[in-house]
Amino acid sequence: SYELTQPPSVSVSPGQTARITCSGDALPKQYAYWYQQKPGQAPVLVIYKDSERPSGIPERFSGSSSGTTVTLTISGVQAEDEADYYCQSADSSGTFLYVFGTGTKVTVL
Amino acid sequence: EVQLVESGGGLVQPGGSLRLSCAASGFTFSSYWMSWVRQAPGKGLEWVANIKQDGSEKYYVDSVKGRFTISRDNAKNSLYLQMNSLRAEDTAVYYCARESRGPPSSSFDYWGQGTLVTVSS
Lengths: 109, 121
Description:
The structure holds two protein chains of two kinds. Chain A is about 0% helix and about 45% strand. Chain A is built from no helices and nine strands. In chain A, the strands form two sheets. In chain A, strands 1, 3, 4, 7, 8 and 9 form a six-stranded mixed sheet that branches. In chain A, strands 2-6-5 form a three-stranded antiparallel sheet, with no helix packed on it. Chain A is globular, with a radius of gyration of 13 Å. By secondary structure, chain B is mainly beta. Chain B is built from no helices and eleven strands. In chain B, a hairpin with a 6-residue loop joins strand 5 (about 45-50) and strand 6 (about 60). The interface of A and B includes residues 1 and 101 of A.
């Protein structure tokens, strides 16, 4: 089955930049999406189509893509950005199945 | 305002059944693909199933095929998940989510608050 791999954790000091990677063989052919999830809450979409930001999402959140890896960047990290982050994409084999990444816990030191 | 409100979760014994519901409001429900996504305690997100606007296409993750059935009632703006032959590994919070575009590539742009399903004897 198709998998998206993320680092388990990323630690960053306030005001610094956090980068979270997501790797998958189909990412050159399929868009990636990113979600933020805080404890006890539903996920929130923060990036769609690799690099687009939904309305209401702060400009410090950005996305990029290169080959089989996509990256979520949080510039000028704030304490409120501490959360779990998940990438999501689709299998490119035509099975119409969605896949989430393994998740990354971002800790603001 | 888009709202998705799940209900129907609870404690069920292994082998039992449960039906989850999701009430949608604030958008034209019949115009969107809809999905169920689950999250086991302390674990990551897992897409479970989705359904086309008119109910004519449905897709499932392999682990629930033959046991779960997704359905919708556009007249009632409601999404359902019938879960049979439940196993301990089905224990999770189940979220109802709206797909922005539908397959083959789509995000989940709105989510409900989730309903907890616990499978245990």
